[in-house]
Design goal:
transport, TSUP, cell membrane
Length: about 240
Amino acid sequence: MIDLEPWAWALLALAALIAGLGKTAIPGSATISVVLLASVLPARTSTAAMLLLFIVGDVFALIAYRRHAHWRTLLRLAPAVIAGLVLGFLFLAWSGDAVVRRTIAIILLAMIAITLWRRWRSPSAASGPMAAAGYGTLAGFTTMVANSGGPVMSMYFLATRTPVKVFLGTSAWFFAIVNLVKVPFLAGLGLITPSVLLMDLVLAPLVVIGALIGIRLAKRMPQQLFDRLVIVLTVLGAVYLLF
């Protein structure tokens, strides 16, 4: 894996930079990181590699936004997320790379369509146990199989009309906890290997740089622009995974 071509390393470096940016400024951009790694590495291997890079980004997201989390939302989502993680683990253990990519793409596109439809039909925020159960289960499932839970959670926070800093703070704690929980699952599948660890060690500084840039950007970003960027980047990542 360390003997990759220079163009492949360039894509991996870009993915690491965007991963850090996504953790502290534009959550939807994390999908681009997932797509870039999956285009260079086998899908299952890229899941493990991306997870470790995301954990580095989680540290900086917590430093910047830890005080803005809405803990009631996290507790409401927890049971459904746990169920989704278990389903995702079983799916990942039995499915091939192509099936994983297309399944995630279809889920993301469906969630975007549902979110936009709800916002068009009703100006009120989507809330309640049904919304938390649906989004939470899909978030747990997608984050386990392809580190793509970010877009699903982004759709949930957009549907509930969450302000930018609360969005980022709640997401920071959510993924910091979930990503650590996922480590033993992926290790048990044999996906966290010495070569993956070495590659991530090389890429980790770029995650840090991206996270620091993102912190500065988030302070200047209007809510409407933030929402639109999340939706557009999620759609682009999902379409790429699908085709």
